[in-house]
Amino acid sequence: MTTPIVTELPLRLESTMSDLFLDSASLHPQAADEIRELDRRQSDGIDVRLLWNQTDDQVVVAVVDAKSGDAFELHAPPHRALDVFHHPYAYAASTGRAHHDGLA
Question: 40 forms bridges with which residues in the sheet?
Fold first, then answer.
């Protein structure tokens, strides 16, 4: 009779790429509890997240392009949050902000 092998899973799965949002949250641990991810989508290496800061009631759209390394955040007016989430590059252009300005 053979004994089954039990494999333990890590308590937390580690990402294979760096996450600028999580890296900044680790610098300010209290901020991680105050920021909620409302939605997230990924397509062709571009990661877009809709974030809400409970403390100051601000909505932010965070964009990370894994191919180019560009990353930026847009402060979204609450009534336009979903528009900014679905079209962050267009919103950045309409506000006169180059999409490569920001975190990267």
Answer: 49
Cα–Cα distance measured from residue 55 to residue 35, given in angstroms and rounded to the nearest whole number: 8
Token digits for 69? 């390394």
Regarding pTM above 0.85, the answer is no
Phi-psi region of 57 (alpha: psi -120 to 50; beta: other; left: phi over 0): left
Average pLDDT, the chain: 77
**Residue 103's pLDDT band (cuts 50, 70, 90):** very low
Residue 34: both structure tokens together: 């105050």
CATH number attached to the domain at 20-94: 3.10.450
Beta carbons within 10 angstroms of residue 91's beta carbon: 18
Dihedral angle, C-alpha 19, 24, 27, 29, nearest 10 °? -90
pLDDT band at 28 (very low <50, low <70, confident <90, very high): low
